[in-house]
Amino acid sequence: MSNQIPGHSGLKWLLEEGCEFMLSPRNRSASQGLTLIEVLITIMVIGVAFSAIATTMLSYSRGNQQVILKNEVARLTEQYMEKYRQAGSYGTMRTDTVENVTVAGRSITFQTDFCPTDGPTTMACDSASVYIRVTALNGTTVIQKTETFFTAL
C-alpha cells in the first residue's frame, strides 16, 4: 500500500501541503466550535479537580471540628478543677462523679475520680489534701485526662 497522495510524491506533498496541514492547530475554521469529545474531556477534568478540592475541604472541616471539641473539653475540664479548688474542703472530697455534657454537638462524659487507687503514692489523700483526676470521654475514647493534687494551707 502506498502512503503517497495520487499524483504527488510523498516528500514533495509533505513539504508543499502536508506541513501546513500538520502544523495548523486546528484543521477547521474557528467558527465550528468544540467537538463533543473536547467538551466531555473538559467536563471530566473539571469534575476530577472539583472532587479533589471537595475532599480536601471536608478533611479540613473534620479536623477543625476535632480542634473545637478538644478546646471546649479543655475549657470545661479547667472549670471542673477550679470548682473543686474553690470548694476548699479537700478532706471531704471522696465521692466520684460522672456527668454527661453536650460539647460541640457530641455527648461527652466527664468522670471525676477523687483519690484514685492508681494515683501516685507520694500524693496520698488525707484530711487536708485530695488527688483529683477528671477524664473526658467521647464514648470509650479518652479526649482529655487532667490530674491535680490540692492541699489546704
TrEMBL record:
Annotated compartments: Cell outer membrane; Periplasm
Keywords: Cell outer membrane, Membrane, Periplasm, Transmembrane, Transmembrane helix
Membrane topology designation: Single-pass membrane protein
Transmembrane segments: 34-60
PROSITE patterns with a match to the protein in the record: PROKAR_NTER_METHYL
InterPro entries: N_methyl_site, Pilin-like
Name used for this protein in its record: Prepilin-type N-terminal cleavage/methylation domain-containing protein
Biological source species: Deinococcus antarcticus
